[in-house]
Specification:
With 224 residues, this protein is mainly beta. It contains 1 helix and 12 strands; from the N terminus they run H-E-E-E-E-E-E-E-E-E-E-E-E. Strands 6-5-4-3-2-1-11-12 form an 8-stranded antiparallel β-sheet, with no helix packed on it. Strands 7-8-9-10 form a 4-stranded antiparallel β-sheet, covered by helices on one side. Strand 7 and strand 8 form a beta hairpin. The radius of gyration is 19 Å and the shape is globular. It starts with 5 loop residues before the first helix and ends in a 15-residue tail after the last strand.
């Protein structure tokens, strides 16, 4: 297949006289909002526990690994735990506890369209994704285990910028500068009870809801 330069592709998609610079993924201007929930049934105590999990991913500061410079990615975690009787689940659940946590998760760097990362428990880098993406190609993304291909290319607006949006053969989405619709480090999954998934994205203080994610009201990013 003939590879099309990303700037040329953006011009075709957006049909605009002025083309924005490509959105960089590895930038302190970006924030990712993750939502999800997990339920646990405690038969002995007649309790249904629901944990609502919210995470905010962001870059802050630099680090050197094997003489390469990376941005450090962290997440802030907010967990709300609720209990209620599963035999009589009427009314509001009982609030049990809430806690905050901040954790370093990975170092990432970007070289043109290529994004690399070093997870917090590793010391060698892996390719996270290649953002030079063309129609009909297999998406070169770390968690694209089934070799899904790009079937449609579109764009979405965030503030004065446009972000290229790729539909895949598994009916999920991948975004320029953002990553997968199910979150930064997730494979695409059917059962949403396994964790938290991308809800919305912020670029230079402009926010947009990711409507193909989970718990994703349009244009709403909770502050946590």
């Amino acid at each position: 297949l003939h590879r099309v330069d990303r700037r040329q592709r953006q011009m075709c998609i957006r049909d605009r006289n002025t083309i924005n610079e490509p959105i960089l993924m590895v930038s302190e201007s970006n924030k990712w909002y993750i939502n999800g929930s997990v339920e646990n049934l405690d038969n002995a105590n007649d309790i249904l526990e629901t944990r609502r999990r919210k995470l905010l991913y962001y870059f802050e500061g630099d680090t050197l690994i094997n003489d390469m410079q990376y941005k450090k990615m962290y997440y802030k975690q907010f967990d709300s735990i609720f209990n209620q009787s599963y035999s009589s689940p009427v009314g509001l659940p009982e609030f049990q506890s809430t806690f905050y946590d901040v954790k370093y998760i990975a170092a990432m760097r970007q070289n043109s369209d290529l994004v690399y990362y070093v997870h917090d428990d590793q010391n060698t880098e892996e390719l996270y994704a290649d953002f030079n993406i063309n129609l009909g190609e297999v998406l070169n993304y770390k968690w694209n285990y089934d070799n899904d291909i790009v079937t449609e290319i579109d764009s979405i607006q965030i503030g004065s910028n446009y972000i290229t949006k790729y539909k895949l053969s598994n009916d999920h989405y991948f975004y320029e500068g953002i990553g997968a619709s199910f979150g930064l480090f997730n494979a695409w999954q059917i059962n949403a009870n396994v964790g938290g998934f991308l809800s919305c994205f912020e670029l230079n203080n402009e926010k947009i809801g990711i409507d193909e994610g989970f718990y994703s009201p349009i244009n709403y990013c909770p502050e946590f």
